[in-house]
Design brief:
ten-stranded mixed β-sheet, disordered N terminus, alpha+beta, globular
Length: 218
């Protein structure tokens, strides 16, 4: 089994560790998660105009339950400034570029939204970057961090029953459907049906076949 490689790479970590290894516990704050194509980092107020430009899209908002529409810069500033509690995550998803810069393409979070009992995964990708696997790639990394470093036993995620793209992401991450519920849609200002899924540590550990988690210090 692979272990973290400490040879001259104090600021990075590649992990294919066993779920539940307490020696791997780390705080969330002050870290950046990297994948092959993406950088997941904390959003800031400086990012707000770029976030708003991407998120202010009815094709995105209608597929989610809580994203405001229209989505303004003030909404992005409020989201970026909202505190992250222990055991939660909040990332701006950025695409790596050949010139070394990063382009924001979406957002992903893991939190107890609306009083949820389990940590709940949420994500969206700007329409210009759909169908390129970015949501799945980001979700894999967030899930790995949740189980390897935050000690969660089970995660939850939901999607509108009409959101087939999100369902594909959820299934690629190993989540299993547990219920169909009703949720309030901010976009439609109405109650809509949603499917809810869960993923436990044992299932994640047995199914995980994606790239190792990599962490970089800010």
């Amino acid at each position: 089994m692979s272990r973290p490689d400490d040879s001259g790479r104090d600021d990075r970590e590649s992990i294919v560790g066993e779920a539940g290894e307490r020696a791997l516990v780390r705080p969330f704050h002050g870290l950046v998660i990297e994948t092959r194509r993406l950088v997941l980092r904390a959003p800031t107020a400086i990012d707000a105009p770029a976030i708003a430009e991407i998120a202010d899209n009815p094709h995105i908002a209608q597929n989610l339950t809580s994203l405001p529409h229209p989505y303004r810069t003030d909404d992005a500033i409020a989201w970026a400034g909202d505190a992250t509690e222990d055991g939660e995550q909040k990332h701006l998803i950025c695409l790596k570029r050949a010139d070394g810069r990063h382009t924001p393409v979406g957002a992903i979070s893991l939190d107890h939204r609306r009083g949820a009992r389990l940590p709940t995964l949420g994500y969206w990708i700007g329409e210009a970057w759909w169908d390129r696997g970015f949501a799945t790639e980001a979700a894999h990394a967030v899930i790995d961090y949740a189980f390897l470093h935050q000690g969660h036993a089970r995660l939850s995620v939901s999607c509108r029953v009409t959101n087939n793209a999100s369902r594909r992401v959820i299934e690629k991450c190993g989540f299993q459907m547990v219920a169909q519920e009703l949720g309030h849609s901010t976009f439609f200002q109405a109650v809509v049906p949603v499917d809810r899924f869960q993923l436990d540590r044992r299932t994640w550990d047995s199914l995980r076949r994606w790239e190792p988690l990599r962490l970089a210090a800010v």
